[in-house]
DNA sequence: TTTACTGTTAGGAC
DNA sequence: TGTCCTAACAGTAA
């Protein structure tokens, strides 16, 4: 379930279990339609160790010292886990890094929208992609400049990785729910104060989810994440949660307390 | 059997 | 040129 907090949780798992171990080799699962490093690229990692990780938005990087990085993108349904050699494997493992001593770093991706690739330079990669600032790092001025001046729907602006990297469908809905903004509201029609409030909500929500290691059951009951169903009672007013499509994405919101269109 | 899906991006409209 | 929007991607699960 990968947006920024899920990716951060994945990065931390990699930090905890996949660094400073010598890479022995790789295993590939059923990988039709999955982009993975080529045999030559994989060979460059064998015998080396990962020593650092980095995350920008939803993009995860695992780096060897002075060498290339392994970039992992989780797509719509991907995840990573570190397991002992011989542990029972979940289905849909597409790619495995084998370390001396037994640990395995697995990339699982049922839906095959994710990818793993070799990246020489992280900063260059981010620049080439045109990714905006990370959603946890961006300052209030930059947020207001990029998000607040967009002509289209505020939710579409939040989802644009070129404006702001890391926010996806679920946490965009959550932030708009908390701040009482209709997902279809025109971003450039919102009051400046409202845009700042939205920035704080995005930041606070992402931080809180990161703090739970992206375990949704640990999040407060009154968050929208637990009520994403047409007709559910709103937890902030007497309204009912309603489903509509904004920018091609399914959106849940409460028409009674979310306004701005 | 049908439908929806948490991300990204090419291509088209304006 | 830029900005915005839609559809499509592949496979699973409800």
From TrEMBL:
It catalyses: Hydrolysis of DNA containing ring-opened 7-methylguanine residues, releasing 2,6-diamino-4-hydroxy-5-(N-methyl)formamidopyrimidine. Residues 224-259 form the FPG-type domain. This is Fpg/Nei family DNA glycosylase. InterPro entries: FPG_cat, FPG_N, H2TH_FPG, Ribosomal_uS13-like_H2TH, Znf_DNA_glyclase/AP_lyase. Coiled coil: none annotated. PANTHER family: FORMAMIDOPYRIMIDINE-DNA GLYCOSYLASE. Belongs to the FPG family. Residues 2-114 form the Formamidopyrimidine-DNA glycosylase catalytic domain. The keyword Metal-binding applies. Keywords: DNA damage, DNA repair, DNA-binding, Glycosidase, Hydrolase, Lyase, Metal-binding, Multifunctional enzyme, Zinc, Zinc-finger.
């Amino acid at each position: 379930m990968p947006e920024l907090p899920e990716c951060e949780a994945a990065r931390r798992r990699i930090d905890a279990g996949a660094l400073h171990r010598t890479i022995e080799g790789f295993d590939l699962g059923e990988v039709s339609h999955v982009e993975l490093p080529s045999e030559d690229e994989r060979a460059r990692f064998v015998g080396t160790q990962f020593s650092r990780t980095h995350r920008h938005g939803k993009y995860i990087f695992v780096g060897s010292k002075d060498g290339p990085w392994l970039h992992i993108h989780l797509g719509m349904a991907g995840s990573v886990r570190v397991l002992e050699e011989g542990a029972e494997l979940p289905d849909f493992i597409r790619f495995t890094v084998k370390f001396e001593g037994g640990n395995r770093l697995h990339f699982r991706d049922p839906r095959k929208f994710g990818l793993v690739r070799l990246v020489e330079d992280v900063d260059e990669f981010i620049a080439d992609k045109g990714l905006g600032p990370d959603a946890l790092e961006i300052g209030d001025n930059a947020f207001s400049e990029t998000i607040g001046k967009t002509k289209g729907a505020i939710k579409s602006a939040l989802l644009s990785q070129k404006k702001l990297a890391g926010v996806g469908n679920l946490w965009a809905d959550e932030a708009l729910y908390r701040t009482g903004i209709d997902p279809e509201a025109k971003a450039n029609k919102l009051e400046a104060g409202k845009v700042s409030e939205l920035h704080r909500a995005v930041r606070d929500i992402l931080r809180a989810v990161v703090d739970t290691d992206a375990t949704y059951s640990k999040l407060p009951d009154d968050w929208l994440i637990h009520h994403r169903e047409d007709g559910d009672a709103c937890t902030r007013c007497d309204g009912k949660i309603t489903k509509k499509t904004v920018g091609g994405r399914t959106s849940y919101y409460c028409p009674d307390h979310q306004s701005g269109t």
